[in-house]
Fold this protein.
Amino acid sequence: MTDVLAPARATAARRRPLRSANARAARRKAQLHWIAVHALGIAAALFFVLPFVFVALTSLMSDNQALTRALWPHPFVWHNYVTVFRTPGFLTWWKNTLIYAGAGTALTVVSSIPVAYALAKFRFRGRTLALMLVVATMMLPPQVVVVPMYLFWANQMHLTGTLWPLIIPMAFGDAFSIFLLRQFLVTIPDEYVDAARVDGCGEVRALLRVVLPMARPAIAAVALFQFFSCWNDYFGPQIYASENPAAWTLSYGLETFKGAHQTSWNLTMAATMLVMAPVIVVFFFAQKAFVEGVTLTGVKG
């Protein structure tokens, strides 16, 4: 009996080191894969984060240190931010930017939702043509129509020197917002809307009570896109509000601030951080809804 079991035990003994070697090789391969993937991720993160770190550190340096090769503030000069806030007009730029971004975002969302709903859920002749026209307007650069639009707002409406020429057009919808919302609303089954109609809901009530609660991710994405666009807009305020310093926004005012503090890089970086901070904070807290809305819109249609 012992002679019969001996070959089997020998074979099992030879297999154990082989299995152990295969297990070690698999673990090593998994570790190398983890290192490779995370190394690329860390490198990409550093590529985007390091400029912000450089701006933040420079904003906390003294005047003399900001002109040297030093990378770490010594000491930390927090008073730079106080100096920037005390700059004449800076708080006015903040107020104007908040009004422009807030009003523009609200008007864009309110005006784009009904159009997107009609293009997604209504069946009418020329619907495809209407959608093509909406998409086509996204191909038209704003610089093409800036001259006739400026003449209209200056000669007919007399609103140059204010932000109204930028805010009022947003009450008539935005092509990108309409297209993005429409793509999401198409994914909502028509049965929900049909059930609401059977229960006696009109189109407006079905939109408000049924469709909008289901479209919150897309609405959040559109709102964030528009808010960031208005907050960072430099071209519009430069065209319509440059003649009136009381109507400047942060993006345009920052350019004049940089011109007035060409050698004070610490103050310039502090002002830059104050301009970027709201956008970073808003995206940090709303990134889940933003990513979900962009992902779920897809390309269905």
